[in-house]
């Protein structure tokens, strides 16, 4: 359940970030920026989760 919540949060936040910070004339750049932000959110969340698991 927590993983789903993290993925949904990352999806919606990255969509908003891509929409407000990208160049409207280049939607492809906005899409790649949104995908990069999404991957960063999920990747960093997984690293933090493993660190919290290893060091209780």
Q: Beta-strand percentage? A: under 5%
CA-to-CA gap between the ends?
20 Å
Number of domains: 1
> What structural class should be given to the helix and strand makeup?
mainly alpha
The rough form would be described as elongated
Quaternary structure state of the chains depicted:
single chain
Q: Report helical residue fraction.
A: over 70%
Overall pLDDT score: 92
Spans of 5+ residues with little confidence (pLDDT < 50)? none
Helix/strand order, N-terminal first:
HH
Total count of helical runs of at least 4 residues: 2
Structure report:
This protein is an all-alpha fold and 56 residues long. The longest helix is centred in the last third of the chain and has 28 residues, at 27-54. It has one domain (2-54). It has helices at residues 2-21, 27-54. The protein is 86% helix and 0% strand. Helix 1 (2-21) runs antiparallel to helix 2 (27-54).
Features:
single chain, 56 residues, mainly alpha, 2 helices, 86% helix
Fold blueprint:
Layout: H1 2-21, H2 27-54
How would you summarize this macromolecular structure in one to three sentences?
By secondary structure, the chain is mostly helical.
């Amino acid at each position: 359940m927590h993983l789903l919540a993290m993925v949904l949060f990352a999806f919606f936040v990255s969509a908003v970030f891509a929409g407000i910070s990208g160049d409207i004339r280049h939607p492809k750049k906005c899409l790649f920026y949104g995908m990069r932000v999404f991957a960063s959110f999920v990747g960093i969340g997984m690293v933090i989760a493993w660190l919290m698991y290893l060091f209780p």
